[in-house]
Amino acid sequence: MSKTTMSSIVKDLIEKYKKFVTANSESIGQFESAARILSYVAPGSSGAVSELLSSIVSLVVLLNDYLLRNAANIQLQLPLQKKCLAFCLTVLEYVEVFLELATVEKRGDRARWFTVVSVQIIKSLLRFIMLFKDNAGILPSPPIPSLKRDKKLHLKLKNSSPQQSTIEAANAEDVTSFKYGAEVTTNSKTFTLKSTGRVVRSLSSMTTANERMWSSPTSNSETEPSQTSVVLTSTPLNDQQKLAECLHVIRPLVHLACMYICGVSSWKPWLIACGVDLSSLFMMGGPENFNPVEKEELKRRTFSMLLYLLRSPFYDRFSKAKLLFLLGFLAHNVPVVRVIIRPLLEYLPIWQKTYFYVWMS
Prior knowledge:
By secondary structure, the protein is mainly alpha-helical. Helix content is 66%, strand content 5%. The chain has helices spanning 3-23, 25-41, 47-71, 80-106, 109-132, 151-159, 162-170, 220-228, 239-262, 267-284, 292-303, 314-333, 335-353, 355-358; strands at residues 75-76, 176-179, 182-185, 190-193, 199-201, 229-230. It has a four-stranded antiparallel β-sheet, with no helix packed on it.
């Protein structure tokens, strides 16, 4: 088989996959969620195998999101270099747990810590480049968010399909008429009543019952911008806020250095890391002046402080006995919860010993 023939076959398969993903966005989303759950409950799977399956699912989701964004004309408004760095950082966050577990199973604990330190150094360098060179501001984790597979996305895919584009091109002339006291635009999804100014949907824009949005109609000028792009303009940070973001970025390296100097079971790494995270949150200030994505990231960082209850040595000395007692009580006395709690009890020791699980940034 010649290279030209092989290339054409690969291109044909890629095009078929693109069409399949864009035509079945909701079903693909359900399959991705089911595959992610099955990767952890697969019988006989080791931690590394489960994480390998989970990493593959996450990377496939990232690929599908890219295809769906292109098909729905949803563009991430990021410079090319910043987009590449965000993509690399997202991929690294998706595979970091697998790299740690695979290394410790194949090479032992010392190689595991070498992998952990290497990954954290690379992540910190990428974040610093995006913070100072690209002015990324508060960077979410992961930097490229997952695309919601909802009815709005389905409608965007439907409206941006070639058939729909042909229909819209045929009705490109903007003919305005006045009928029964209303202003009607033939290529518009709504019309405005002349006497009251109320916006009403036109009959031509009606969809099927299961796709219908029951919220109040809005004019085209209000809806069109949100359908074409996702604006992720970073909020400019002042000097104090940049220092706060720097503390958040270097916290993993500070914790690893303290563990190397003071020992894994020492309280000093736990206390210093907790202090760095708290300082970062307080120095960042309130979320009022940030965009919605940055507000969600600050909220995530605030709630992630609860993970310090599950981080050693606090977990070993205080939280472990209470948590195991609570989960055991639920597993033995609540029949419905038992199905979820028992696999959780089996996986909890692996989860607690995995650095990238417990010390996620």
